[in-house]
Structures are given as C-alpha cells and as structure tokens.
Amino acid sequence: MKHPEETGGPAAAPTAIVAQSLAGQREAAAERRARYPFRFPTDRRQLGGKFTVKENSRRLLRFFYFERRLMHALGSWTLSIPDYEVKLETGRHIFYHADAARLLRERLTEQEMRPHAVDAHRDPEIDRFIDEMLSAHSPAELLVGVHQVVGRAIATTYRHHIDDTDQVTDVPTIRCLRRILTDYEPMLEWADAAVEAYVAGGEDEAKLSTWRWHVSRLLASIGGIAGADARAEAPKPLRIDEKPYERGTVPRRDARFDTFKHTGDYETADSEKRYDKDSYEAIRLRFIRTQRDEVDAIEAFGTFVWDIRFKDFNAEYDLARITWDEARHTEIGHRAMLASGYDPYELRNRLTSSTCRGPMDPAFAMAEINLFGEVGVLKTINDLIDTAASRNDELLRHISDYIRADERTHVRKGTRILEIMTKLDAKALELRTRELFTECLVSLGAIKKDIDMQTLSREEIEHLIGE
Closest by alpha carbon to 103, among 156, 205, 178, 30? Predict the structure, then answer.
C-alpha cells in the first residue's frame, strides 16, 4: 500500500482498530509472565518515526553523495597541503569519508536501490558547493570548510536523523550512522585543534571567520546536508564564478623539510655517505627513509581519487583505502626515524616521484607507483625481513612485516584500478609509463640527457624513483 505523499492524495484520518482478545487469553498470558523467573532489561524503544522508506532513502542518498564528494575533495588537495601533520591526517580522512559512503551505499541497497543507481546519482548543487569549498586560499581555509562547516553539519544531521527515524523499524540506519560518527568525533576534534594551530602560527582569524560564514551560507542555500532546511540566499560573489576550481599539480612541503627532486638517490642528495652503499646499515636507513617519504604516495593516491571520480565507486574506495595505508606508512617511517635516533627533519625529503606524477595523466602515474614502485618493494622486502631477523633488528623486522602485507594488497587492488583508468594493454601501458618517466627524470636532472639514450627499463626506474 502506498503512502499518501507517494500518491499525491490527501492523508486519510487514521483508523482505530480495537483489539479483540479471546476469552481467558490475556489472563493466561499474565499468569505465564508472573511465573517466568528472569527480569531482563526493558527495551524502551517505541514504534514511530518521521520518515517513510522513500524519505529515508532520499536523505541517505544525499548523505552518500556528500561523503563521496568529500572523499574526492580531500584527495584533490593532497598535493597542495604543505604541512606534514595536515597532509598525513588528510590521508586518513579521505578513507573515513570513503568508508562512510560505503556504509550508506550498502544501506541504500537494502532500501530497494540498486548499487548502479546509487553510484549514478549526481547533484549539481552539491557539486557547485564542493567546488567553491575547494577554492580555499589556504589549507587552513580548507579545514574550515571541510570540517568546521560541512563535517560539523553532517555530524549534527546524522544525530538528528538517529533521533527522528523509527527506533525499531530503522535500526540498520541508526547503526550505520552511529558507526560513521565514531570516525567523525576524533576527525572534527583534530580539525578544531589544527585550525587553532594555524591561527596561533599567524593565519588571519578574521579571514578564516569570513570564509566560514561564506561556506555556511552557501550550504544553507542548498537546504543543508539533508536538503530539507529552509533555503537561504546564496552568498555573492562565489570564487568559482571568477575562476573554476582546478586541483594543484605541484607537491608542497612545509619549512621544516629539506627537499630534493634532482635525484632519487639519497646518498647523491645528501652529498656525503653515512654508510657503505651495500651495507645492511645503508639499506636499513634507505628503507626507513623511503617509508617516511611515502608522504608522496598520499599525494599520488589521493589525487587519483579525484582524477577518476565517478568512474567506479569500488575503485575510488580502494584508492581511498590505499591512501589511508600510505598515511600510516609515512607515520611508520617518521616514528622509525625517531626510534633510530634521528630527528626526522634532518633527513632530506625526496620530491622526485610527486614532481613527475603531479601533472601526469592518472593512468600513467598510477602505473608508475603500482607496477614499478610497489612491485619493486616486494622484490626486495623478503630478504630485508630475513636479514633484519637474523640481526635481531626487531624494529625493522616489525615494521617491514606489516608494510609487506600492505604492499601485496596494493599491488592486487592496483591491477583492477588500472583497468578502470585505461584501456591500454599491460605492455603498452608499461612502455608509455617508462617513456614519460624517462622524460621527467631528464627534465629534473636526475639523469643526463644523451642523444643515444634509450627509454629507461623497469628496473632502472625502480632504482631511480626508489619507492
């Protein structure tokens, strides 16, 4: 039977149906309850909520779309964020929004929507809002828009939805939203502290407040997160009307880093060797430095999420998960440097890979990091783990064991992602990727141009890029 709002007709007065108990049944039930010895906690939830299945689905689809677009949005800024802690945390948040989108997508399929219909959904108003939010002039403005305006509004809307939906019939939605909120709480708390750090470090608080108000008014103009609020007038002018949003292509680092991009070799960049080149000590330090420098992998996979947006939700989700893993690898490397007695910022940071990948077509950039970088790690990591174990180097054995498991997963997932990104066969993809990276490394001075120079081999790129 259809609801009145679905048929367009007036709502009929509710019909009271009087219960008809048969003789003696109610008394018998009361007697059985009295004899039953266990007094379990009473479930005080009541039937009744504000939403039909249709309205519930409409709201959840809008929630899904916001989460998916926030995943894309943060990915597009990963190259342009210079601050280490913010880039690292953004790598995590990309996945938090991706996972929220996945949970909402799954719930929508339980409410009679097919996955392809969920994935095909578009909302031009939300897209325009996201582009304006991404036109932030600084990472501080980005955090204000993504977290202090949109993130906070989403968390509030989810809590209201939990309160307003039927507490009995719609428990799956309630559980879904509560699970998402477990990520939102620390994410928003961190963002508030990060914005405070920016202000304490010199960011203009008044300008951030002006931007916060601007983004808030724009969100109100599209009916808020649920699309059900009274619409306010949109602020004018919008930044995207003057200049459409485009993602950055240049990797940025904060002032604590000493960076290089003219080589992939740490010893060449350092201009002085610490250990004999083939010694265990040199290989160990190189591995740890490579992990810290996977800050460039946050940039790579985050950017791919933006670049392939709307092509395939599962590919977006896998890229978001890999971005989260790379944020963890970066953190592992940073902490392993500390545990090894270094100030992490005394060890130079390599920008070679991101400098090449940033402007590149995503299929070739993905092929480089997946086919050459991650596969290259798997070629050597087993021996490294065995050597670390034989030397009782528990720190390196421990971290490399976890990294090996991640890289195996990344290579496997990367194969399917590449199929989404390009129609080229494996041989053609590898060749064109090698050609592009050869050209880039020549332009950076990482290798010298020679009239007879051939395209670099897979092994040479693995060595020169050093991932």
Answer: 178
Q: Domains in the chain and their CATH numbers? A: 53-242 (1.10.620.20), 259-306+326-465 (no CATH)
The whole-model pTM stands at: 0.92
> If residue 121 lies in a helix (H) or strand (E), which one and from where to where?
none
With H, G, I as helix, E, B as strand and everything else as coil, classify residue 349.
strand
Alpha carbon of 364 to those of 151, 167, 356, 367, 435: distances in Å? 33, 49, 10, 5, 10
> Residue 43: its pLDDT value, please?
86
Determine contact, residues 219/150, Cβ cutoff 8 Å: yes
Burial readout 37-70 (b: 16 or more C-beta within 10 A, e: otherwise): eeeeeeeeeeeebebeeebbbebbbbbbbbbbbb
Residues of the chain with pLDDT under 50: 1, 451
Query: Beta strand pairing status for 349-350 and 259-260?
Result: parallel
Check: CB of residue 352 under 8 Å from CB of residue 359: no
**Residue 295: Cβ within 10 Å count:** 27
